[in-house]
Amino acid sequence: MTAHNEIREVDSVMAKNTAKEYRNQVMYSVFVRNHSVEGTFEAVRRDLERIKALGVDVIWLMPVHPIGKTARKGTAGSPYAISDYRAVNPDYGTLEDFRRLVEDIHRLIMKCIMDVVYNHTSPDSWLAHNHPEWFYHKSDGSFGNHVGDWTDIVDLDYSNPGLWEYQIETLKYWAAMVDGFRCDVASLVPLDFWLRAREEVEAVRPGCIWLAESVEPFFIQAARGQGITALSDSEIFQAFDLSYEYDIYPYFQDYLDGALPLSRYAEAVTQQESIYPDNYVKLRFLENHDRLRAAAAIPGEAALLNWTAFLYFQKGMTLLYAGQERGCVHVPDLFEKDPVDWASGPDQTELLRRLYALKQNPLLTDSAYRVQALAGDILRAEHCSGGRQLTGIFSLKGNCGLAAVEAPDGIYPNLAVGGSVEVKFGRVSCQGGPIIFEAPRG
């Protein structure tokens, strides 16, 4: 059997292995350095009970490895400029401290995934010193990278078989401890590498979770224009369980900026239903460490409440970035010590618990999903399956109005914020807050 046929055989298996139940889960992202003033594994471990109480299934640890010193940005440096893939950052603690953290995550019936940064390393990394032939080199023979403002890193070159072996062995080493990987700019690493890595890691960690940081359409187009590998989401889903929703993020951002009508965003979300595999899982987010905080990007209590409810209603896994539950507006610096201000806003724990209970609804696991824009910046979304329908009405600017729904007249519990909602003559009165109810299909 040829290597090409082996890869295609893996391909046919991998895309079908992803469990739709990931759509009922919530992931919580932790930047160890800035999660506390202490900035250690132990400090995160002491916070696990609180995190679990929010309704969290998976904790994603941003890179935990040592950070390079050459070309470092800022005082502390970016955690994505890694100097040694097989060690932990001594500022965070020891390997035993890391193991203890993961063990406690497991004790609380959560899973732990760690960041994998395989497109590049710091210029002074162990690999750069010991295997310079595994790196991209500029015409003058010096190390280089393909993205201009990433000046603190140098790119790896996956045309080298030895690099594949080293990277996969590293994944297997960590897979003995953790439950999965969030793969940084996964789109810039060859698909065949990810397919082989997934197959080999499965022997060490069956059911390993694979999350791809896929990239925006304009990034793909620009990279391909320079002859650089840039995987589309349809390619990513051959090897990964989950991918970022950067394919539609520009529509979200442009709507918030007033550059696009809500209908364009709604159409983009609905289109995902027809262009991805039946078991596709998007990582749904309002914020992450590379974007504005939701409380800053979405001003107004009512608007943020509606967007948060819609976040949990969406088909896909929900992402919370540490501090989101307290309405933080400041984005922690990637290059400096900059702890989360845990007293910055009201505690949203009770809201997130309620929405987490909603997230367990089987209609969110497997459904026909559509999203439509109504007048007054109101979004109507529906999950339909087996004669039942979960309907969400989200007033994204806190406006009041009537929303048409396909449900029998009656009074239903409002699963978003409590209370009840009345359907009369096929209409629901929206008073500015989120509405979610389950009913027979009308």
Model description:
With 442 residues, this protein is α/β, with parallel strands linked by helices. It contains 15 helices and 18 strands. The chain has an eight-stranded parallel β-barrel with strand order 1-2-3-6-7-8-9-10. Helix 1 (3-17) crosses helix 8 and helix 7 runs parallel beside helix 8 (191-202). The relative contact order is 0.11. Residues 1-14 have low confidence and may be disordered.
Write a short abstract of this structure:
Helix content is 31%, strand content 19%. By secondary structure, it is an alpha/beta fold.
What keyword list fits this structure?
442 residues, 4-stranded antiparallel β-sheet, alpha/beta, 19% strand, 15 helices
